[in-house]
């Protein structure tokens, strides 16, 4: 498979038909780069060390080969695939994805994580499971009890391995990997490749294929003249946010890239509902349909083209002013390629990217590769939108006053001024113009997502912050106490400290508060939410006191142990 190119399809990757069918029904049109590179060696049974962040499509990159190897009807009850992930959230997310891809194969997938009653997990295991998706802590619990049969495990995946190490799961990972059959395939995905990951890989992977999606080098002079903006938007608010952004940017002609066909169809409908003339273009359409769409775009009868990468490949549309990435592209190459469609021939173009908070790292990666700054902007508020609409109305009226022959309306104005003040008549006319030109008001507030960068981010880690990082029950605790924790929050000028001591050392919130207040003179009320997991605790403290607390903790002990905190490495995004 040396000849994998941009045009490689899922069928070219020699996946079984049930999987190709599942991907097509999900609207995936082509493999992402990490999928293109990982799937063939994984199907061939090799170990793999891959560098990839969330949003690159890495879940399918390991899930599809795992499902490819599932046996037919007479499957044993014992799992053949094990996927280790750092958090409960990710365990659920990955297990849903594996289930979705493997539905036609009858894949039995079980997420196991702390906080969920172990009885339910045991029942499912005894009924029979093909793929277990587990957090390391809970996996170790099961292994110790002998409740996960490991003897048939043929493939193990360490997903987000750097995060698992950061969370103190190194020993658990060694224990789990040590308990697996030696004849197995091992896959390790990590967003970063620090020395500890390399050493983990050396210990547990055998002669792995190494994959890192290399970035293209963009020659300076070739770079298009493009204003690059990004908006951080929670997924559920994306359609409304895009509508607003387009209202304010008022593109003459724009192309909006989506990941899947389904997304293309849904967004086209939403934007048409908002008064745009939007046309969908994707690989599920026949040539005739596509030609019709392109004709409408080229003649100026459509202002927005909503497309997948595949469908838009090779299209050359001269008049484009804006390119929109409805999701952050899964690879920097794709970003560069997309934005190259505007800013041609010296004209300025605009590239807009909507990013979910968890995709922040992908955005940083793109900036690093392109060397261009992407300005993070705020989604226009309702009042921005109103102002913009007023401007549009003003402009429309001004043009009409300057250019049009208005004489034939004179009789209407004259008859109205018998009854009303001229100024009132003008106001009514403006109202009608405004409503006709700017459409319905959109009153839904879109939450603001703020990107916070801890000052001491030494190792360029930009983690998701919208995710539970706990294991062995702490999420359960957080669910119960979540409200209380939130109430305790001390606001935006805070940071979280990671204390490497937790429930397994019987630590309680009072111990942490006591140590901090005792050593630093900080008042108890200046300390915010506290989350206690099995092996660590996270304590919210005022940003300006963080360094003092770290220094002070070096001189004291908690529960008889020296416990030196550090700033939480995960980047937090807050609403
Ligand atoms: P991940 O990096 O695995 O978290 O995937 C990011 C998102 O991309 C998920 O919403 C997937 O459903 C989606 N996705 C993964 N592979 C593809 C593909 N080949 N085409 C379109 N979407 C994809």
UniProtKB/TrEMBL annotation:
The Helicase C-terminal domain, residue ranges: 225-386
InterPro entries named among the record's database cross-references: DbpA/CsdA_RNA-bd_dom (IPR005580), DEAD/DEAH_box_helicase_dom (IPR011545), DEAD/DEAH_RhlB (IPR044742), DEAD_box_RNA_helicase (IPR050079), DeaD_dimer (IPR057325), Helicase_ATP-bd (IPR014001), Helicase_C-like (IPR001650), Nucleotide-bd_a/b_plait_sf (IPR012677)
Keywords: ATP-binding, Cytoplasm, Helicase, Hydrolase, Nucleotide-binding, Stress response
Domain DEAD-box RNA helicase Q intervals: 8-36
Keyword Metal-binding part of the UniProt annotation: no
One Pfam match: DEAD
This protein's GO CC annotations: cytosol
UniProt-recorded Gene Ontology molecular function terms: ATP binding; hydrolase activity; nucleic acid binding; RNA helicase activity
Sequence segments annotated as region (Disordered): 437-489
Protein name listed in UniProt: Unannotated protein
Species annotation: freshwater metagenome
Organism lineage: unclassified sequences, metagenomes, ecological metagenomes
